[in-house]
């Protein structure tokens, strides 16, 4: 779809005028419908989303929607099936179910591109901020846990430490025996020096 079907100011005003002839009104509604199709396809291309189908949001049951100049004077409601947005905590929903009617006569591409780029920057910043806040909480929790563990460990005897560390019982007993032996040696040396 290369032609954008953009309406002129005069065509746009005629489209919404009650003085427009029926024949001219039909021509303008067709042009507005073609422009609407161009807008939706281009919009979702800018947003990197696929378009399966779309229609004006005024059809009922098996009836297709149509461009109603009186209903869509300010904005055009639509429905459809569109590919998922890129995974993001903050989805871009500015035009998910309506577009401004003035887009029938105005270039909208640059505006949408700018809004979407700004949204991506803002969403990335929010996600980064959330990740940093989460990491900060984890770091603080780990720090508190480490301090608590150190405080508890400082109050334990070496024997209790062996069992707290969940060592193999035989290794724990051997380590305890070695510690006791080392302590006995220290006591013996200490007593020997006191005698001198």
Can you put this structure into words, describing what you see?
- The protein is mainly α and 196 residues long.
- The protein has two domains: 9-108, no CATH class; 157-196.
- The protein is 57% helix and 9% strand.
- It contains five helices and three strands.
- The protein has helices at 9-15, 22-46, 109-154, 158-164, 169-195; strands at residues 51-56, 75-82, 98-100.
- Strands 1-2-3 form a three-stranded antiparallel beta sheet, covered by helices on one side.
- Helix 1 (9-15) packs across helix 2.
- The longest helix has 46 residues, at 109-154.
- The protein is rod-shaped, with a radius of gyration of 37 Å.
Topology:
Layout (H helix, E strand, L loop, with lengths): L8 H7 L6 H25 L4 E6 L18 E8 L15 E3 L8 H46 L3 H7 L4 H27 L1
Antiparallel strand pairs: 1-2, 2-3
Helix pairs in contact: 1-2, 4-5
- What is the ordering of alpha helices and beta strands? HHEEEHHH
Q: End-to-end distance, in Å?
A: 106 Å
Radius of gyration: 37 Å
Low-pLDDT ranges: none
Tally the structural domains.
2
- Going across the biggest sheet, name each strand in turn: 1-2-3
**For the report, how would you describe the main beta sheet?**
3 strands, antiparallel
Q: What class, by secondary structure content?
A: mainly alpha
Percent helix:
55-70%
The beta-strand count equals 3
How much of the sequence lies in strands comes to 5-15%
- Bulk shape: rod-shaped
Give the overall pLDDT as a whole number.
Answer: 84
**Alpha plus pi helix count:** 5
